[in-house]
Amino acid sequence: MTRTLACILAGLASTLVATSARAQALEPPAGGGAAPPANPAINESEEGKDSGLGLEWVYLNGDVGGGFASMDSFNQTTLGLQKTSSGGPAFGVGAGIRLLFFSIGARVRDLQLSGIGDLWELNGEAAFHVKVGHVDGYFGARGGYNFVGSLNSQTAAVATGDTPGNVSVHGFNVGPMLGLDVYFNKWISIGVDADVQFLFLQRPKLTIPGPEGTALSAECSSNSQCSNLYNESGSSAGIAFVPTAHLGIHF
Predict the structure, then answer these.
(1) Which of 126, 87, 89, 90 minimizes the C-alpha distance to 108?
(2) Is the Cβ–Cβ distance between 169 and 201 less than 8 Å?
(3) Region at 84 (left for phi over 0; alpha for psi -120 to 50; beta for the rest)
(4) CA distance readout (Å), 48 to 42, 52, 133, 150
(5) In 3D, which of 64, 56, 53 has the Cα closest to residue 247?
(6) Strands 85-99 and 117-132, sheet pairing
(7) Quick one: CA dihedral 87, 189, 55, 61, positive or negative?
(8) What confidence category does residue 160 fall into, taking pLDDT thresholds of 50, 70 and 90?
(9) Which of 193, 168, 234, 183 is nearest to 109 (CA)?
């Protein structure tokens, strides 16, 4: 009898120990939440696709390309020039700051128009960026002051064959831009961009050459372009297209 009772008690004890062990294995960890799987499958490429470029704060770049400008595409009021449309090479430098997906800066560019002169641009620029890996696309706008300091003699020549050296055209421009950069590393990139510029220009009235009060020659007075250069100021609205390639430095 005593032996039978001892066997029963031993069986109950072993059952309780086994049940307790199973309960502890199923119990959630302290702090709540489900227990992590024993062998989680981790796809490192999907945890965070970091290009390794880091954040960018300052950019510098130089560009080279070409362009075409028509200074009287839309309207002209006594501009008085023999040539108002031309193309040629373009050179520029730019710098600015960037905050995540937005950049703002300034750019100086010289568009060398054959037969007209150097169309200089002093522009501000702003753009929104979309970066995927080492490729950075952007779109935005540029605008500012532009001028032709001294027009080419072929453009400003008067009917008598003289060349007024103080002819100048100045005004402002504004328009959209679109571009793409490819980063070699955190600091160096190459890219391309293009902008369309709407030009709003003015030409001041010229001073008649010679002693004060000198009248225009008969040849110049009978030529409308020559007469307009000296007797009236002029204005025009035009358009320019400038595609370039550039090398960038980033900090």
Answers:
(1) 90
(2) yes
(3) alpha
(4) 12, 11, 12, 56
(5) 64
(6) unpaired
(7) negative
(8) very low
(9) 193
- List the one residue out of 137, 131, 133, 134 whose CA is nearest residue 49: 133
Residue 47 has pLDDT above 60, yes or no: no
pLDDT (tens digit, 9 = 90+) per residue, 3-30? 554 555 455 455 544 545 554 555 555 5
Q: Tell the residue number behind the tokens 């800066």, with chain if given.
A: 105
Report, in angstroms and rounded to the nearest whole number, the Rg of the chain calculated over CA atoms. Answer: 37
The pLDDT assigned to 204 comes to 77
Q: Whole-angstrom Cα distance, residue 227 to residue 223?
A: 6
What's the rounded Cα separation, in Å, for the pair 174 and 4? Answer: 103
Query: Taking the model in full, what pTM does it have?
Result: 0.71
Amino acid 16 reads L
Tokens standing for residue 23: 């309960």
What 3 state SS string does 109-172 have?
A: EEEEECCCEEEEEEEEEEEEEEEECCEEEEEEEEEEEEEECCCCHHHHCCCCCCCCCCCCEEEE
Closest Cα to residue 170, out of 207, 125, 200? 200
Query: In this structure, are strands 102-113 and 117-132 parallel, antiparallel, or unpaired?
Result: antiparallel
User: Which of 204, 200, 209, 208 is closest to 233 using CA atoms?
Assistant: 204
The total number of residues written for the chain in this structure: 251
